[in-house]
Amino acid sequence: MHKIESKNINFYYGETQALHDVSLSMKENTVTALIGPSGCGKSTYLRLLNRMNDLIDNTKLTGTILIEGEDIYAKNTNVDDLRKNVGMVFQKPNPFPKSIYENVAYGLKVNGITDKKIIEERVITSIEQVALWGEVKDKLKKSAFELSGGQQQRLCIARALAIQPSILLMDEPTSALDPISTSKIEELIYELKNKYTIVIVTHNMQQAGRVSDTTAFFYMGELIEYDKTKTIFTKPSQKQTEDYITGRFG
Amino acid sequence: MTKEIRLAKQKRRNQKIAFGVFQFTSYTVVGLLFVILSFIVIKGISVISWEFISAMPKEGMTQGGIFPAIVGTLCLVFGSMIFAFPVGVLAAIYMNEYVKDGWMKKIIKQMTNNLAGVPSIVFGLFGMALFVNKLEFGDSLLAGSLTLGLLVLPVVIRTTEESLKSVDDTFRQASLGLGASKWQTTSKVVFPIAFPNIITGLILSIGRVSGETAPILFTVAAYFLPKLPTSIFDQAMALPYHLYVISTSGTNIEASRAMAYGTALVLIIIVLISNLLANALRKYFGKKVKMN
Predict the structure, then answer these.
(1) Does one domain contain both B37 and B58?
(2) B56 and B30: one domain?
């Protein structure tokens, strides 16, 4: 069974159709990269997976998305529970204006965990998981805004991991970071793969090549090609895919 | 001279003229404010004394102090804030965080803007009809506070809305993305970030409330009442109305002229102090929100 399974997805912002009949499935503990030029629908698709698009008024969706076999757009779906299981990391590091500790503890608290010991344990584990512990262990009470951009983004990943999701969505997580911070995040993705199913939107071809197992190429709201990353980058079956990854357009 | 040099010179000259005009107008504004303030200070400082701010008015308000008017104004500020602040903030949260874009939101918005444009004397009449007569509060601090509260409600709503709007959407998304409910997101992330700016709404409305005369005219203000209010159903004196009374219809207008300027000075100082206080609060919370 696939971890994430989407069938015949059509999505509209008002009158504009952003996704055309997209069917795409991902296996557990793999990294899938979504690539394509700006406005191709890859971020829109990503945000369907944790129902982040619900926040936008006047949208319409047809088709089904199953996560662990459950229809996440069914009437009886608890969106909060879905988002607990499907964590998200955003384009710009967006820690809350709270302390480093509270940033990670927040997700636990809003999900009803009150035991201080458990919270502390999970906060520490999560920060260790993103290899940030050594850098912040002496300033957990300091504002998260005092961290560098790369550290902030790793903190945001820790924040997402703390509530123990099984899927992690990453929306261009390194586009605002310098090359060193970027490579740290990429290493992290590589390690997290063992425990999480990761879907990452990226504009960076090399990054898609380095971190992902499978790659989906979107163009004008359509899924043009979806295959093993190696295949996509060495012998894509579609002309458009080849043109895009060789930099002929996009 | 080549064409390019001429053009460059012209550009520089135009810029100089434009900035010169901007500079002149902004300095004029500051200058005017300074003139008004110093005029009031020079004319009013002579009567300021401990007695003036702590004693009851005497001799047909030509002597003594303005203590009851100060207390009355402070009560009205406090009373109207207790009403307008929670109502306004909650309404703004509802409008900005919960209502979907559509005709309902447009109507509420338009109504709020219209409310802000209603002349204050109309609020006074309405307050008299509703609070004083219909609800039988009589001329009282309660009626006056509610009327003033209504008057500043749009200010509170609008500034709160602006503060909420300025909170970056990615904070909302991050919180919801962690499985937080909309209410948790609003109360634990969005509101604390917006709070320092919401305080600004409080500053503006305090200034507005303490200076308004028309809304209190028929709802609370007493012409001459040399005692302090003891309950919310008492009438009270208030600084702006007192100023109006001793400048236009006092027993001896010439003799109380200095008292009028003194009253104006006290009113300005109260507004100034509340602004400084609110500014300090804003800074304090601004710092605190980053740390919690």
Answers:
(1) no
(2) no
| H/E segment holding residue B149 | helix B141-165
Residue of B nearest to A48 (CA): B177
CA distance B204 to B275: 8
pLDDT tens digit sequence for B186-231: 999 999 999 988 987 788 788 889 989 999 988 988 878 878 888 8
Q: Find, in chain A, the residue whose alpha carbon is nearest to that of B99.
A: A57
What pLDDT, on a 0 to 100 scale, did the predictor assign at position B246?
85
Do B87 and B164 sit in the same domain of this protein? yes
* Residues B269, B221 share a domain: yes
pLDDT in tens, B36-80: 999 999 998 988 888 888 888 877 666 778 889 999 999 999 999
* Residues 6 or more apart whose Cβ sits within 8 Å of residue A30: A193, A197, A198, A213, A214
Q: What residues form DSSP beta bridges with A19?
A: A11
Contact: B179, A163; criterion CB under 8 Å: yes
With an 8 Å Cβ cutoff, are A160 and B178 in contact? yes
DSSP state letter for A77: -
Contact check, Cβ <8 Å, B179/A107: yes
- B215, B272: one domain: yes
In percent, the amount of chain B with pLDDT more than 90 equals 50
* Least confident interval from A88-97, B56-65, B151-160, B219-228: B56-65
Q: What per-residue confidence (pLDDT) applies to B49?
A: 87
Q: Tell me, what's the ipTM?
A: 0.91
CB nearest to A88's CB, from B168, B177, B184: B177
Residue with tokens 């009270």: B236
Residue A201: the pLDDT is 96
Shared domain for B157 and B24, answered yes or no, is no
Which residues, at least 6 apart from A188, have a Cβ–Cβ distance to it below 8 Å? Answer: A130, A131, A154, A157
pTM of the model: 0.83
Give, in degrees to the nearest 5, the angle at Cα A82 between A80 and A87.
95
Place of tokens 């008017």: B69
Determine whether the interchain pair B173/A107 forms a contact, defined as Cβ–Cβ distance below 8 Å: no
Architecture of domain A4-245: 3-Layer(aba) Sandwich (3.40)
Minimum-distance CB partner of B176 among A83, A97, A141: A83
Query: By the 8 A CB rule, do B285 and B195 touch?
Result: yes
